[in-house]
Amino acid sequence: MPREFVLETHGLTKTFRGFTAVDQVDLQITEGHIHALIGPNGAGKTTVFNLLTKFLPPTRGEILYRGKPITHMKANQIARLGLVRSFQISAVFAHMTVLENVRVALQRKLGTSFHFWKSERSLAALDERARELLAQVGLERDADSLTVELPYGRKRALELATTLALEPTVMLLDEPTQGMGAEDVDRVVALIREAAKGRTVLMVEHNLSVVSRLCDRITVLARGAVLAEGDYASVSADPRVREAYMGSEATEEEEA
Amino acid sequence: MAMSDTSTVTAARQRSARRRHGLLYLGLILLGLVAPFVAYPVFLMKILCFALFASAFNLLLGFAGLLSFGHAAFLATGAYITGFLLSTYPGLTPELGILAGTLGSVVLGLLFGLLAIRRQGIYFAMITLALAQMMFFLFIQSPFTGGEDGLHGVPRGELFGLFSLQSNLALYYFVFAVFVLGFALIQRTVHSPFGQVLKAIRENEPRAVSLGYDTDTYKLVAFVISAGLAGLAGATKTLVFQLASLGDAHWHMSGEVILMTLLGGVGTLLGPLVGSSLVIGLQHQLSQSPLGDWVSVILGSIFVLCVLSFRSGIIGELQKLVKRNFK
């Protein structure tokens, strides 16, 4: 059987002091897909992300990457395998330049990251590749700015460039369009579509129009468990999903 | 085309910044070379030792984001080991004594670090404080430290067995060389591939993990370098005052180094140098004036003022001023 699933979970469960945040979740992410994880607030989407990337240890269950168990690896080892995550709140290195942000992701491969006696000028060899990546997300003119000075949408674009620098096989994006205006959302959707070529993307997303435009497959979580799975048309037609998810969407819009 | 333009502009700007820094450091070295003819060398040596101590501390707080509240332990370990060895073995040359003291602090730093590095923020500070307090009681109880009396009359000896360090002027140049080497190591560490990762960890540790870095190991290496340099400062200080005492190990000392660093500007390379000069200078001036008993109160007030009104410290505020007006 060909290994078509790049990432799988079996009975993934996380309990916090008796509260079950993630309950027996079985996920199958197909190689090359853009796969969305949606669900109402508190459904356990971000917890699933944290479990997959080992930022939290699972209580029970198994995680497989290309058929091999990775349940007991450390977070940084998961990243080295090629599963790279982003965060809900833009995760950039604020007091480094935009170029340095990308370079710090590139430099691990040089194998000199523990060399405290070497000049940082030895990293200049990576500048060209870093600028290429920045150009991919339209940030080439910001390369020398201090990251803290960038507007929010550009920080998210930078985060994407930094993630791409690792050439991940699976990108895990946690609400990539959260807190953005319509214009930035379109830009990020285009960027994700571009970046997803030749890789697999798993994303948590609230914005259903983004999901419908981008995603090949959707898993709906509610109260920590999988409620439905399928493509956008079948999921959005599912009455249980409409009840659990669309029902609560009205309240979310009120919050926003 | 546009891209290569910006990159050449950046390169030019970086070159000129490097030239400016080079000139600044050259000026400071010249200042250091003539200083003992203007001011009392022992006083200057005290400043240099504490500046090195504060710079080592700043490497950790300013560039790795780790607040250690136990750095006195490393200063004292360097001081006691060097003091004990030089007093006990008259044939030992001072540079070997200092080397042994520094290595002692490196080993202690590794032990502390292995125990503390997994904890974050205030827990990290508390564990380092607790470990340093344990060292304090160890130093009181151990016979080799001279207990409450400390070690007196540590011989300065002859550098490499050739140059006598008896005269304050000769010793000054030795201490100055030690300081410059220690400071250069810190400067290099900050501006190295390792320093880049350290900054990334300081800025956003979960993100650094998600980029594949084993952040605990990086923090541990930084901690050990910092501990070793603090030990080097302590060892050198023993040579200057020919004395190693409990004062070095007291938690006051851990607090004082925080004060020096914050006052001068945390996360700036020159900040600890300025901060320690200010604190030592004030202590020196005040101890000779009728206000002598008020040293702690005055330093405390300055500290409060600093935290309230110029939070990035003297050098930090100066940098902001330059940035606002000349860029």
Please tell me the CATH architecture of the largest domain in chain A by its name. Answer: 3-Layer(aba) Sandwich
Strand coverage percent of chain A: 15-25%
The DSSP helix count of chain B reads 13
Structural class of the helix and strand makeup of chain A? alpha/beta
SS summary, helix count of chain A: 9
User: What series of H and E elements makes up the topology of chain B?
Assistant: HHHHHEEEHHHHEHHHH
CATH fold-level assignment of the largest domain in chain A:
Rossmann fold
Radius of gyration of chain A: 19 Å
Net shape of chain A: globular
Major β-sheet strand ordering of chain A: 6-7-8-3-9-10
Percent helix of chain B, as a range, is over 70%
Terminus-to-terminus distance of chain B:
25 Å
Weakly predicted, low-confidence segments of chain B? none
Structural class of chain B: mainly alpha
Polypeptide structure, described:
The complex is a heterodimer of chains A (256) and B (327). Chain A folds into two domains: 5-92 and 167-255, 3-Layer(aba) Sandwich (Rossmann fold); 93-149, no CATH class. Chain A is built from nine helices and ten strands. Chain A has helices at 45-52, 75-81, 98-106, 127-136, 152-165, 182-195, 208-214, 232-237, 239-255, and strands spanning 5-16, 19-30, 34-38, 60-65, 68-69, 83-85, 170-174, 200-204, 217-222, 225-230. In chain A, the strands form two sheets. Chain A has a six-stranded mixed β-sheet with strand order 6-7-8-3-9-10, sandwiched between helices. A four-stranded antiparallel β-sheet of chain A has the order 2-1-4-5, covered by helices on one side. In chain A, helix 3 (98-106) crosses helix 4 (127-136) and helix 4 packs across helix 5 (152-165). Chain A is globular and about 55 Å long. In chain B, 75% of the residues lie in helices and 2% in strands. The longest helix of chain B is centred in the N-terminal third of the chain and has 33 residues, at 2-34. In chain B, a hairpin with a 3-residue loop joins strand 2 (158-159) and strand 3 (163-164). The relative contact order of chain B is 0.16. Chain B has a domain at 41-250. Chain B has a two-stranded antiparallel sheet. Chain B has helices at residues 2-34, 41-64, 72-88, 94-116, 121-141, 168-190, 193-203, 205-210, 215-241, 251-264, 271-288, 295-309, 313-326; strands at residues 151-152, 158-159, 163-164, 243-244. Chain A binds chain B through residues 53, 55, 74-77, 79-80, 84-87, 91-96, 100, 103-105, 107-108, 110, 112-120, 122-123, 127, 131, 135, 140-141, 143-144, 162, 166, and chain B through 2-3, 6-7, 10, 13, 185, 188-189, 191-197, 199-200, 203-204, 206-215, 218, 221, 225. Chain A: It comes from Modicisalibacter ilicicola DSM 19980. Chain A: One of its GO terms (molecular function) is ATP hydrolysis activity.
